[in-house]
Amino acid sequence: MIQLTNIEKYYANKGVKNYVLRLVTTTINQGEFVSIMGPSGAGKSTLLNIIGMLEEPTYGIYNFLGEDVTNLNERKRIELYRNHIGFVFQAYHLIDEMTVYENIEAPLLYKKVGSAERASRIADLLDRFNMVAKKDLFPNQLSGGQQQLVGIARALAAQPSIILADEPTGNLQSAQAEEIMSLFKKLNEEEGITIIQVTHSEKNAQYGSRILHIADGLIKEDMAVVA
Amino acid sequence: MFKLNLKIALRNLWKHKGFTLINVGGLAIGMACCLMLLLYVNYEWSFDKQYKNADKVYFATLNLKYNGKLATTMAVPNKLANAAMIELPGIKNAARISMPGNFRLFSHDQNHFKLEALSADPSFLQILGQKFIYGNPETALAEPNNVLINASTAKKLFGNQNPLGQLITYDNKVSLKVSAVIEDLPKNQTIRFDVLQPWAFYEQENPAEKGYGWGAITCLTLLQLKDNADFTATNAAIKNFIVNKESDLKEMTYQLFLFPLAKFHLYDHFENGKSAGGKIDQLRLFVFLAICVLFIACINYMNLSTAKSEKRAREVGVRKALGSTRNTIMGQFMIESLLLSVIAMAIAFITLELSLPYFNNLLNISIKIDYSSYPFWVLLLSMILITGLLAGSYPAFYLSSFIPVKVLKGFKSSTGSLSIRKTLVVLQFSLSICMIISAIVIYSQIQHLKNKPLGFDQTALAQIDLEGEWTKPEKLALFKNELQRSGAIMAATEYAGSFTGGGSITSDISWPGKPKNDVSIIHYRSTGFDFAKTTGVKIVAGRDLDPRFPADTATSLLLNQTAVKAMGLKNPVGTVIHWGDNPPLKVIGVVQDYSNESLASKIQPTVYYYNIKTSRVLLLKLSPAQSLSTSVEAIKSVSTRLNPAYPVEVKMISQGMAEKLQSEKLLSVLSNLFGSFAIFISCLGLLGLALYTAEQRSKEISIRKVLGANLSDILVLLNKDFMKLVVISNVIAIPIAYILVAKWLEKYDYKISINPWPFLLALFTSVLIALVTVSMQTFKVAKANAVDALKYE
Q1: SS3 of residue B97 by DSSP
Q2: pLDDT of B136-161, one tens digit each?
Q3: What's the complex ipTM?
Q4: Which residues does residue B114 pair with via DSSP β-bridges, in sequence order?
Q5: What is the three-state SS of A158-203?
Q6: Which helix (H) or strand (E) holds B283?
Q7: A96 contacts chain B (CB < 8 A)
Q8: Is the pLDDT of residue B543 over 80?
Q9: Cα B704–B708–B712 angle (5° rounding)?
Q10: Domain boundaries, given as residue ranges, for chain A
Q11: What residues of chain A score a pLDDT lower than 70?
């Protein structure tokens, strides 16, 4: 599904190249649950951003669903966002001016899903996440864990084939974190959604099926999780 | 999508109430100012455009040599209308109109009123269609004693009776029959009258009129061209019409041209025989001002919206990651600005409607909003759209350009965008500073004209018209005596015409040493005895006209200083002067120059001679011992007793002098009013920028405070940048303002010299206002608890 070949990313500063990623080559298949781990500044988030096409690599080839997306124009990229990729952020990044319901609805509107279909999907998601009673609240009226649930619900609304999560539990207490991680695991196992998450926590990484250890921009270790 | 965007826009506006208030307030003020100015411009623009044939009607306009220069006047020979009608093929209709400003007594039963009477050929009613209530245009002016009145005159004279066929007495002697009643003239009509009489009647009253040749310019003439007539050909044919009739006049040029009636109100200034603007210049200025104020308000909105960008950046990032296109995001911001623009327009509109009566009152005009006219609604809608789009465009472009990964990681606004904002603020402030400087200069010029020594004493100086019994010298003498005895007045003298108005001119005076080909124009005014005593004008040489010298009633003259200079007389007193067929006249005194006709232009050379028969007004020096109202009451009661047929009207000269500055006052009021609004809106903009900076730098400030900076250090740090902007604005604005005001002052003969203080004052004011505005915000930030800002991150 995702094929990275010799991906490099550096920032040139006064002629000195500061490498963030070096010769990253890996393949992630449909249905995998990959955790990217590594110390601060190792390039985890950059790798995730490149996978999410939020950043472009300096060198290298990136194939997404068999298509070269290294230099994709904006229109095509937006198309991919709408249909294939769901983002979950560490800081939730819900839109403050929208209610829970509207936040979940937003990607469906961009995707131009019909109103009946929209209503049923949102109702389904709210139901699944036990948020029905909270659908008219604004993000600042929710706890962090609840906000992240909305964030995930929003990511799922467009029925993506892959979810990219950048430290989804970084701002949460451990109980809430566990809840989110079990949810990811369930989504991965029951619905076959590919999940790629960046995390610091060994424990969280154990929920997944594969761990990529990154240090100094290089993949140091690529191991499967033994259940 | 649209509905959601709208809903979110509303929520956004509601959530940031302060911002919304500043934004809507600024836009509303800007729009209200802009609308008000445009309404005023439209009012002036609409003058004389209401006639059906407006584009075919012209004034016959005359260029003639006057004091060595080409002067232009609408006064033409009375022979022109008929001759042109017969001889020029392109002309459909022609009508003579008597010179305006002729107020006469009209009475019916016990109702006596002084009304403005105009005499015109019957074809006048064909050329300019009037709205008839009674009567019809064919017969209205058919007989010499017919009279056409307007509705309010009818109401005054006849109450609610049908006036048609009723009799009116003219000047207490002639009986006239009301032949027609028309609706009141709209205020935006140049040719004004209460009463319209046939030209034939005018000739009866002024028998000399018929005998005048081609050289006498005594009336206005309106010409209507045929629908298929070629303007250029007719204009060329009429050029030498007069000199072809009488070649002697070639010496004084006497060339005619056609000037559109519809342009007369706005283009009434002529230079060198050519149209050279007039009121239109002021209107252009107002249109420019209107656009500036609206533009300043829009800049404000841009600044405030982009200042909020920190808060909005994340939203943009998330939306983009969710699959929103840039256009959708731009749409969102556009909807917000349009929504705001609609709200602002609603407020502006209400403000406008409420303040219109005051505005009308202030400027003595009558502007009404015509709700049934679609251009008005088009203007309103397009203003909403333009404002919304203009104000929303930059925020939309700027905010939608954010790159998701950057803003989601933590927003750092690039310095580039700030410099655009800074440029906008500089632009805004430069415009405002220009307005402040202009307002100060206009104000001081008016004060300069107002406070200029007039050369006569305008306090307690009044005038009444000489009519009815007062045309008999013995009655007039009795009246003056009675007034003096009653203690109402100190002195009185007859005078040629209204003291603050113009008067007659001649080129027929010669003096010792006058060059042969000199055709200098000299003004002349008749007066009675005690001229200097009444008006307070100083006699600088010789003496005043005096009843003790019998010659003074026949052959004595007074000159003013300008006349002495113009004639180049060394010892004016005793000089003998020749004037037409009169016996030789002797100069007995020189009066100091005084400005009574115009405050702004040069004093004209003038001679004064004794003649109470040709004098039309009586000047009265009211007694300072009595209150003004007591004196006026006394004059009224004496007058009613001795001259019962004519209601007396006491006019104060000081009032007439104040009216001379009407146009300057208008400019001053508008520039002050809208200049201060512009400044106010600009301050809102600055406040926005200060908010932005404070938000941006709150962390930096907290760190500095933790490191030991005190309040004043931080205030200086924050205010420094803003003061730089204001100073740059001044550097830009001052030279521009200098050029503008210097150009404006050019038209005044008496003007202030441009000194640095208006500029310094503007500099000082702008810096002070900016300092106060910015400090309000920065002080809050500087005082804030450092921990609060540092805790998050």
Answers
A1: strand
A2: 888 888 889 999 999 999 998 888 88
A3: 0.70
A4: B105
A5: CCCCEEEEECCCCCCCHHHHHHHHHHHHHHHHHHCCEEEEECCCHH
A6: helix B279-307
A7: yes
A8: yes
A9: 80
A10: 31-54+73-224
A11: 227
Is A140 exposed, middle or buried (CB count within 10 Å of its CB: 0-12, 13-18, 19+)? exposed
- Closest-CA residue of chain A to B322: A107
- In the predicted model, what is the mean pLDDT of residues B130-141? 88
* CB-CB neighbors (< 8 A) of B15 in chain A: 97
Q: Is the pTM of this model over 0.80?
A: no
The strands making up A2-13's β-sheet, listed across from edge to edge, are: A16-28, A2-13, A59-64, A67-68
A41 has a chain B CB within 8 A of its CB = no
Q: Judge whether B11 is closer than 8 Å to chain A, CB to CB.
A: yes
Q: What is the DSSP letter of B550?
A: G
Listed by start position, the domains of chain B span 2-42+281-449+664-791, 54-264, 461-659
B12 contacts A97? CB cut-off 8 A: yes
Predicted confidence band at B568 (pLDDT cuts at 50, 70, 90)?
confident
The length of chain A, given as a count of residues: 227
**What is the distance between the alpha carbons of residues A44 and B112, in angstroms, rounded to a whole number?**
100
User: H-type helices in chain A, by residue range?
Assistant: 44-51, 74-83, 100-110, 115-128, 144-157, 174-191, 202-205
Q: Considering CB atoms only, which of B323, B405, B408 is closest to A110?
A: B323
How close B305 comes to chain A (CA, Å)?
16
Residues of A in contact with B318 (CB under 8 A): 89, 93-95
Nearest CA in chain A to B14: A97
Average pLDDT over residues B123-133: 89
**Closest C-alpha to A166, from A59, A107, A85, A61:** A85
**Contact status, residue A68 vs residue A7, Cβ threshold 8 Å:** no
Q: Report residue B219 as tokens.
A: 């009336």
- CB of A160 within 8 Å of any CB in chain B? no
Distance from chain centroid for Cα B683: 29
Task: Give yes or no for residue B500 having a pLDDT over 70.
Answer: yes
Among chain A residues, the shortest Cα distance to B2 is held by A109
Q: How far apart are CA B580 and CA B674, in angstroms?
A: 55
A190 at interface of B, judged by CB pairs closer than 8 A: no
Chain B touched by A56 (CB under 8 Å): no
Contact across the interface for A93 and B408, Cβ inside 8 Å: yes
**Which of B37-46, B175-184, B729-738 is least confident?**
B37-46
- From chain A, pick out residues whose CB is under 8 angstroms from the CB of B333: none
**d(CA B312, nearest CA chain A) in Å:** 9
Q: Dihedral sign, CA of A186, A188, A192, A195?
A: positive
* pLDDT at position B418 over 70: no
Mean pLDDT score of chain B, rounded to an integer?
Answer: 85
CB contact under 8 A, B319 and A95: yes
B321 touches chain A (CB under 8 A): yes
A164 CB neighbour count, 10 Å cutoff: 24
Tell whether domain A31-54+73-224 is in CATH 3.30.565.10: no
Q: Name the band, by pLDDT with cuts 50, 70 and 90, for residue B220.
A: very high
